[in-house]
Amino acid sequence: MNIAICDDEQQDIDILYNYCKSCKLPYNISTFLSASALLEAFKSQFYDLIFLDIEMDKPNGFEIGSILAGYSPRPIIVFTTNALQYAVRGYGIAFRFLCKPITITMFQSVVREALDEILPQKAAVTCGSTQKMISINDVIYFESLNRHIIFHFANTSTLEIKDSMENMISVFSYPSFVQIHRSYCINLNYVDSFTPLAVTMTDGCKIPLSRKKQTIFQERFNNLIRGTIK
Fold first, then answer.
1. Which structural domains are found in the chain, ordered by start?
2. Where, by residue number, does the polypeptide cross the bilayer (predicted)?
3. Residue 79 near residue 54, CB atoms below 8 Å
4. Termini Cα distance of the chain
5. pLDDT tens across 117-165, in order?
6. What is the mean pLDDT of residues 40-44?
């Protein structure tokens, strides 16, 4: 999970940074002393959870928070502030507010709530000797090749791990994922078009559609169109 801490006071950044480390979870933590620096970094790196100070020089936390809230997928934003009267203005943008000085108890409570939102969108896969968390929303499809699984992501990157299709199907037991061939499982949110023989994904890849999988694919895709799954 990627976490960003943005505050124009280094002391406040250090406090939250140390709190994050104390949780001993697989976090990648980035820190920023200005909202504009955070926004620039966000263009190339998605942050699942953002601790964002409100009272900064232009642009302030509200202004950047409004921009970040418009992204899809949307990051979880926790505003940090010296005055909770800002909470009314930030309603609809922030997941939670933390009033300074922030205690470890306050921090841990918010992180637990955030994890309840974030982790259902993540899947853990074994990459070598480590566990890697990947965002299910970023996976276009994955394929089985020579006892390996290759993930294809929306940013055009790939990840290859040693695992079986059977195991990955159980890991990705989400409504938006469907196996359409013995070697392919796709994310229905990235379907561009299809024929009785193949499904074309938004990255241009044409994936074979097994005759035995046509019915389940059509049913699940129709459910997606109706908005009954996501």
1. 2-120 (3.40.50.2300), 128-226 (2.40.50.1020)
2. none
3. yes
4. 21
5. 777 678 889 888 888 888 888 899 999 999 999 999 988 899 999 999 9
6. 91
Give the per-residue pLDDT at 29.
93
Statement: the pTM of the whole predicted model exceeds 0.70: no
Six token digits for residue 7:
């505050």
**Helical pair 104-118 and 10-22, crossing angle rounded to 10 deg:** 60
DSSP per-residue codes, the chain: -EEEEE-S-HHHHHHHHHHHHHT-SS-EEEEESSHHHHHHHHTTS--SEEEEESS-SSS-HHHHHHHHTTSSSPPEEEEEES-GGGHHHHTTT-SEEEESSPPHHHHHHHHHHHHHHHGGGEEEEEETTEEEEEEGGGEEEEEEETTEEEEEETTS-EEEEE--HHHHHHHT--TTEEEEETTEEEEGGGEEEE-SSEEEETTS-EEE--GGGHHHHHHHHHHHHHTS--
Radius of gyration for the chain, computed over Cα atoms and rounded to the nearest angstrom = 20
Q: What is the pLDDT of residues 153-207, one digit of tens each?
A: 988 899 999 999 999 999 998 888 999 999 999 999 889 999 999 999 999 999 9
